[in-house]
Write a structure and sequence with these properties.
244 residues; mainly alpha; 82% helix
């Protein structure tokens, strides 16, 4: 027989669970938060990949120049790239979000997109260093082989160098993408609408923080596990392609 205290505990547990997830169809707010979180992640990921590849190619091209054949434009772009990467990696994400929302885009009210842009710019600096490490680790003969086949510099990078470097840096890129997904929770600070904001809206009405926050933590955990699973499949397929 359950004691009165046990019954009271489970009744309170059910009431709080009901208020956090079921009452007024609040589970829909979590789903909307997940959709926004994934959308912000995709936008930031796209920005980070494009910017990261561009910065990595600039820095790698500069570092691999032959002695006595220095390109002034490439040197200038490399200097800008180094400053950008140093500033982004050397300052906290929260500070970057506040600067973007309160200074650069202070007239904008689309805080979610401002947050996505900031996350993308931040991720680009880390992706650049990851990809640069992969490019620098390849045998320089790969570039010479591509040029000997009549391919231009861009085509050689696109079809020969970058695909090989991608296999090398995939685990590190996967970790960066997982961090990016979790960092979307920070845009709540500037008023962005995503999963944590949905939980805040709910516990401000129910005055019970545990269930909404635990629910959000569980959702993030599931998303990260799913992304990790997809990355594992991609890694195995790439390795299978190498064996064949």
């Amino acid at each position: 027989m359950a004691s009165g205290k046990d019954l009271a505990f489970w009744q309170e547990f059910f009431v709080k669970f009901y208020q956090a997830f079921i009452e007024n169809s609040r589970w829909l707010q979590y789903l909307q938060g997940v959709a926004t979180t994934l959308w912000v992640t995709v936008i930031a990921l796209g920005i980070g990949i494009v910017l990261g590849i561009l910065l990595a190619v600039i820095r790698t091209s500069h570092d691999q120049q032959r002695p006595g054949h220095r390109n002034l434009l490439l040197g200038f772009l490399n200097g800008i790239s180094k400053v950008y990467i140093t500033v982004i990696r050397g300052t906290p994400m929260m500070v970057q979000l506040l600067i973007m929302s309160l200074v650069i885009f202070k007239s904008s009210r689309n805080y979610t997109m401002v947050g996505a842009l900031t996350l993308g710019l931040n991720s680009g600096a880390y992706v650049a260093e990851i990809i640069r490490g992969g490019l620098m680790s390849l045998d320089p003969g790969q570039m010479e082989a591509g040029r000997s086949l009549g391919l231009g510099y861009i085509d050689t990078m696109r079809f020969i160098v970058i695909p090989q470097a991608f296999k090398t840096v995939l685990p590190a890129l996967g970790n960066e993408f997982i961090m990016l997904l979790k960092d979307t929770s920070l845009i709540t600070i500037i008023g962005g609408k995503e999963l944590v904001d949905a939980a805040q809206g709910i516990y401000n009405r129910t005055y019970e923080q545990m269930f909404p926050l635990m629910g959000v933590a569980l959702i993030y955990l599931v998303l990260v596990m799913f992304l990790t699973w997809l990355l594992g499949i991609l890694e195995r397929r790439l390795h299978q392609g190498d064996r064949h």
